[in-house]
């Protein structure tokens, strides 16, 4: 067998077994590709990054708590080669900077791969989620949930036809919501973006016209300034809320009340009815602090008074640097580098296995 193909096959098998963590070696950092997505222009400068450190999908403190047990031999081997240490981070900062292409927007298959990677590498599970990759599928899903009896909770990854923008919606119903379906609309562009109008005109407006009873709560802050990481914000929102649910609530043994405690993260935020769309559409003035970590504008973080200690697993503080006279939060930029490496390794390994299988078929 070709040595290169053999090596790639080995990498892929390690990936499938969850032995490649959400950290990358310096050599793997060289794997990069480019692209773009429709979205709003950023207001921060991302050139000549200083004080650079590369986080995993969640900060190192949390990874130490929730990664596979370090006693696992395979996990120890993976850490030995892939863990980012302060010394490695210092060497990375000292490297001469070179222009890099913009990341390609994450596709549906990329999102699924990253979520699967989480399941294999982290001990806390993800809350129930599904995908709606069109207006039609989202409308059908919400219509089902409106009429579903009893308590329900489901996170919906949604993208919009011909736009390519991803958002996360949390559909929740319980006695806490008076058994009326309540949708928390988590969009990285925020309330002032155009996507709430797309959602209304193509989905929820049609449902309300049929006198279906539900309400929508949408936090106001704009967290995303770049053009290509909306899906990453949606992934982070699901992971942060899952972390809060299992770390904070399960340990306190709230039992069936856990989802109500999660709902209170949003219920406690001041809101106002947005009558320009519908009286059942509410604008929340803020986001829960644990969902503000990736906010790319430091001024937005300050404006909304994110109050988490620096050592909190969801604090943005360790990733906020002064660059060219501007304060920028590099969390998403660093995180995206790690994700691109994971995705590129998987694609290369898949291609190598495909070529190997084709070779075996030909030998028969």
What this model shows, in words?
It is a single chain. This protein is α/β, with parallel strands linked by helices and about 375 residues long. The protein has one domain (about 5-90, about 100-364). Helices cover about 40% and strands about 15% of the residues. The chain has helices at about 5-15, 60-65, 75-80, 85-95, 110-120, 135-145, 195-210, 230-250, 260-265, 300-305, 330-364, and strands spanning about 130, 150-160, 165-175, 180-185, 215-220, 270-275, 280-285, 320-325, 325-330. The protein has a seven-stranded mixed sheet with strand order 1-2-3-4-5-7-6, sandwiched between helices. The longest helix has about 35 residues, at about 330-364. It is globular, with a radius of gyration of 21 Å. The two termini are about 15 Å apart. The model is unreliable at about 10-95 (pLDDT under 50).
Jot down its keywords:
364 residues, alpha/beta, 7-stranded mixed sheet, 11 helices, 41% helix
């Amino acid at each position: 067998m070709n040595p290169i193909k053999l090596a790639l096959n080995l990498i892929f098998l390690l990936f499938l077994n969850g032995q490649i963590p959400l950290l990358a070696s310096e050599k793997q950092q060289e794997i990069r590709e480019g692209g773009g997505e429709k979205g709003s222009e950023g207001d921060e400068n991302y050139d000549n990054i200083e004080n650079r450190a590369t986080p995993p999908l969640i900060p190192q403190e949390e990874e130490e708590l929730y990664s596979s047990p370090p006693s696992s031999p395979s996990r120890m081997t993976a850490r030995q080669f892939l863990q980012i240490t302060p010394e490695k981070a210092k060497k990375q900062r000292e490297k001469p900077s070179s222009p890099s292409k913009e990341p390609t927007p994450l596709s549906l298959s990329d999102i699924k791969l990253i979520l699967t990677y989480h399941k294999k590498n982290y001990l806390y599970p993800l809350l129930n989620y599904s995908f709606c990759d069109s207006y039609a599928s989202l409308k059908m899903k919400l219509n089902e949930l409106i009429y579903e009896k009893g308590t329900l909770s489901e996170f919906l990854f949604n993208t919009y036809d011909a736009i390519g923008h991803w958002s996360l919606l949390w559909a929740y119903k319980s006695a806490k919501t008076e058994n009326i379906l309540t949708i928390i609309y988590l969009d990285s562009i925020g309330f002032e973006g155009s996507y709430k109008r797309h959602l209304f005109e193509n989905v929820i407006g049609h449902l309300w016209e049929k006198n279906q009873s539900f309400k929508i709560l949408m936090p106001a802050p704009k967290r995303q300034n770049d053009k290509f990481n909306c899906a990453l914000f949606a992934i982070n929102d699901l992971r942060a809320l899952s972390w809060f649910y299992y770390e904070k609530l399960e340990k306190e043994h709230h039992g069936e009340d856990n989802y109500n405690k999660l709902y209170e993260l949003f219920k406690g935020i001041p809101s106002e009815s947005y009558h320009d769309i519908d009286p059942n559409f509410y604008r929340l003035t803020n986001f829960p602090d644990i969902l503000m970590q990736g906010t790319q504008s430091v001024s937005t973080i300050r404006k909304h008074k994110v109050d988490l200690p620096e050592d909190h697993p969801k604090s943005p503080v360790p990733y906020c640097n002064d660059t060219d006279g501007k304060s920028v939060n590099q969390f998403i930029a660093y995180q995206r580098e790690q994700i691109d490496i994971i995705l590129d390794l998987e694609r290369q390994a898949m291609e190598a296995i495909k070529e190997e299988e084709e070779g075996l078929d030909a030998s028969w």
